[in-house]
Amino acid sequence: MDKLAAENKALREKLRLLEKEKESWRKTQFIANAADQLLTMIDRNYRYENVNRAYCRARGQRHEDVVGKCVADVWGKTQFESIIKPKLDNCFSGNVTSSEDWFKFDGRELRCFQVTYNPYRNDSGKITHAVVVTHDITARKHAEAGMKRANDRLERRVQMRTEALESANNQLRNEIEERNRVEKALRESEDRYRSVSRDMPAMVCRYLPDGNLTFANIRFKKHFQVSDEALLATNILTFFSDAEGQRMKKRLQLLHPQRPMVTYEQCTRTKTGETLWRQWTDRALFDEMGNPMEYQSVSIDITEKKNVESKLQQAQKMEAIGTLAGGIAHDFNNLLMGIQGNISLMYLDVNSWHPLYDNIRSIEQLVDSGANLTRQLLGFARGGKYVVKPVNLNTVVAKTASLFGRTRKSIRIHENYETDVRMVSADRGQIEQVLINLYLNAWQAMSEKGDLYLETQNVTIDEKFVKPFEINYGDYVRVSVTDTGKGIDPAISHRIFEPFFTTKEFGCGSGLGLASVFGIVKNHDGIVDFESHPGRGTTFSVYLPVSRETSKAPAPPPEGILKGPETILLVDDEPYILDVGVKMLKKMGYTVLKACCGEDAVRVFTEAHQQIDLVILDMIMPDIGGGEVFDRLRVVKPSIKVLLASGYSMGDAAVIIERGCNGFIQKPFGMEKLSHAIREVIDNGHHQPAV
């Protein structure tokens, strides 16, 4: 009984302690539920073990809906991993952790919480839970943000008021400084203006509406020879003629505030007869009422600019005349071709003792004279037979000077040649023609007696020098031909290179000499220029570009008429040339086919190309030109050999030559010249015996 009573007593004591502990837990739970803070207890498995009512109200959940659940399930994996878990792990390590974080409640608005994580230890001191105390500080955060915005607005207003006051003070100070600066700048500007205008290359002056000068720079005073002392007492109109002064007044009267400036050009002659060009710019300075207070005139020398423009205009005119001259020469050469061809045929039927031989010979000489005239025309028109090779100008000048000196013994020739003269790219025959024409021009200018100075020199010319001539600058060889004649009248100097222009009496010259010089030199990408002094003489200077090639000795040409057995297609739109050409070719032994135009040539060649060995092709035809015919023949038979024949020049045929044409012969030509050209193309000199 005693034992049972003791056990009963022990049970009652244990029950009392449990009741006491339960009462303590109810008190603790009551306190937790009465608190406004969100209180939770979380175990080491990140599961809620207990939460208070404030937490449930904040979450909108029941107590049993939260207890036992994982934190990640309640707050979402993203917020758990990024915000809550790192803090819990730190707490489970024994650290009290506090932070302010923004949380999103089940997709609702963001709220800010101040959270403190407290480690909970059991009786043995082991951390088993984290007690989390959470304060909702969203309202405080919003209030703080509102307060900050209000403070910012207040600060901005204070700053704006302060800045406005400072701005007013600064504006007043700046206005005072600006006035002082402007006054100083005006003084400095006036000093700079006078300093710059005093030393600038243009003439500058200023004058009042009545014309009295108030300022002039050094160049103005030097040009008009006025001293500093006399300047302020001088009227601008005294420097001009009455007529020019009246024109100046009218120009100034037309100026107004909307059109305060006028620019014009003025041409004057010096006492030596030299022409000067100046460009004037007059500007009016007006007061507030629009009345002129002062005028300023600036003048620059544009003589060089005018000379360049004049040369460019002259070059354009010469180009147009050259085109016309080339066309005339082409047609004339076709006529001479018909005559020369028939003469060649007549020579085959007459001997030197035949009664008509002298007449035939005379006709041939006239044809040669006509051909020489067309060569002059084609030379001017940038044509002629154009075979460019490296040439030593010392040799050419010396040879032509010797030839000219033997026939003009009244002329004393003085020669001065560059020791190591460079080679030039030129047609030797054309350059000889240029030099002879210049010698003859000098001889006539000296009334058939005087001194002729010939000089060669290696020169390098710059971009400024070649600009009016539209060629490349660089290395050239200059040939100078100077006479002691009467010189060239400045009034006609701009016309001396025009074809048929001459100052000689009728019948004493063709007017093609200098025109031919101009055309040939231009065709060589060169320059011909002159300097003349009336009564003292003239110097013509020819500039030819330096060659990059080396000279080779030409092979001696064969003599006599060369024959052959081949078949030739002759193409020409002139019936008389076609007729005489067929006859000449047959006399040489060839089988001849003919075509009177480009389309006819293509048709005949297409039908008989297998037996045709050579095509003699005219360049200029009314339907399709020689270039297109050449291309179409090569399509039919790529290996066909073609000899171009034209009243124009090889220079004009160069484009077709470069495409693979085999040769060129310039009209007019005789049988011998034609036979050599044919054999050169067909077999490069392996020809039948001459007759």
TrEMBL record:
Residues 567-682 form the Response regulatory domain. The keyword Electron transport does not apply. GO terms for molecular function: phosphorelay sensor kinase activity. The keyword Coiled coil applies. Residues 1-28, 151-199 form a coiled coil. CDD domains: HisKA (cd00082), PAS (cd00130). It catalyses: ATP + protein L-histidine = ADP + protein N-phospho-L-histidine. Its EC number is 2.7.13.3. Residues 96-149, 262-314 form the PAC domain. It comes from the Bacteria. InterPro entries: CheY-like_superfamily, HATPase_C_sf, HATPase_dom, His_kinase_dom, HisK_dim/P_dom, HisK_dim/P_sf, PAS, PAS-assoc_C. Keywords: Coiled coil, Phosphoprotein. The modification 4-aspartylphosphate is found at residue 618. Residues 327-548 form the Histidine kinase domain. NCBIfam families: sensory_box (TIGR00229). This is histidine kinase. It comes from Desulfosarcina alkanivorans.
